[in-house]
């Protein structure tokens, strides 16, 4: 007698007409989804900051047209410095050691253990190490978040590339700050980039509420508007993206006019401290300088004659 196959249990039977559940997607940070990140790959990510700044100065002093736009080059220098400083703070906070203890620990350990210590993975070498207090670790993470926020304000794509090349401890630094201070605008802005979402699903897993809150809290900041415009491009909301970019440019133009008026006023105030006579004949000044020179030389000659 042939055995009959038992019916499938309830709950395991797929619904009629439904496709099988998709395989779990790779979960990565949102900042790895930005378009055109390959445009910012290059040696500037590995060069020492001092050499990078020297190259930026050489580029600025080069004859026009400049090889690289000076504003873009100097922004890359600022982003590298901000990300490097944030990495140092985040690694120290993750390891829980002071900078002196971390340096001695890195020198004592070699190979894989030394690399783990520098990445803040908790390897403890020989000797006693000074632990950081809970409050100090929070302050270090808060400062690291502020530096990362500054980098993302300059250029979110270049900053994303720089953070991807840095230590993995940067990915959670803003989340630690938000656990204690949920209203921190810098932490919310950085966490927007570092939040982990399924790969290749930027539009579906990118709510605009965090950016909306930041824009309401900082109405004179154009960078979150630029970021929201890029996010809307993924959602194919081209009209909304154009509106955000227009509003951001209006804020920037207003700030430029304000700063230009202040600079002009300060420069005029600086010039007002100069004492001069309009229409003075240059021969008068030359005659005065000649007399001063004669007196100085005469004093030297008389001194030599006395000796």
From TrEMBL:
Top-rank taxon: Eukaryota
Source organism: Botryosphaeria parva (strain UCR-NP2)
Record keyword Kinase present: yes
Listed name of the protein: Putative histidine kinase group protein
Keyword Transferase carried by entry: yes
Region (Disordered): 1-23
Keywords, ordered alphabetically: Kinase, Transferase
GO molecular function: kinase activity
């Amino acid at each position: 007698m042939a055995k009959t196959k038992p019916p499938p249990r309830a709950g395991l039977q797929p619904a009629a007409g439904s496709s099988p559940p998709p395989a779990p997607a790779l979960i990565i940070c949102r900042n790895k989804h930005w378009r055109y990140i390959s445009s910012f790959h290059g040696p500037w990510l590995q060069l020492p900051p001092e050499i990078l700044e020297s190259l930026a100065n050489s580029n600025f002093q080069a004859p026009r047209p400049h090889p690289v736009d000076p504003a873009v080059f100097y922004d890359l220098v600022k982003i590298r410095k901000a990300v490097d400083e944030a990495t140092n703070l985040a690694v120290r906070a993750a390891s829980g050691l002071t900078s002196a203890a971390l340096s001695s620990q890195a020198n004592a350990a070699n190979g894989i253990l030394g690399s783990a210590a520098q990445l803040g993975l908790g390897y403890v070498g020989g000797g006693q190490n000074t632990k950081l207090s809970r409050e100090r670790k929070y302050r270090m993470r808060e400062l690291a978040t502020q530096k990362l926020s500054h980098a993302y304000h300059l250029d979110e794509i270049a900053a994303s590339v720089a953070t991807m090349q840095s230590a993995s401890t940067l990915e959670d630094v803003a989340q630690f700050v938000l656990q204690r201070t949920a209203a921190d605008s810098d932490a919310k802005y950085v966490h927007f980039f570092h939040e982990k979402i399924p790969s290749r699903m930027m539009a579906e897993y990118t709510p605009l509420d965090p950016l909306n809150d930041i824009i309401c809290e900082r109405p004179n900041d154009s960078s979150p508007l630029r970021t929201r415009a890029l996010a809307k491009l993924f959602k194919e909301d081209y009209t909304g993206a154009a509106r955000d970019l227009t509003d951001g440019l209006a804020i920037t133009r207003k700030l430029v006019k304000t700063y230009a008026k202040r600079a002009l006023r300060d420069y005029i105030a600086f010039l007002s401290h100069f004492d001069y006579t309009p229409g003075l004949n240059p021969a008068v000044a030359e005659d005065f300088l000649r007399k001063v020179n004669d007196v100085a030389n005469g004093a030297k000659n008389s001194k030599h004659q006395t000796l």
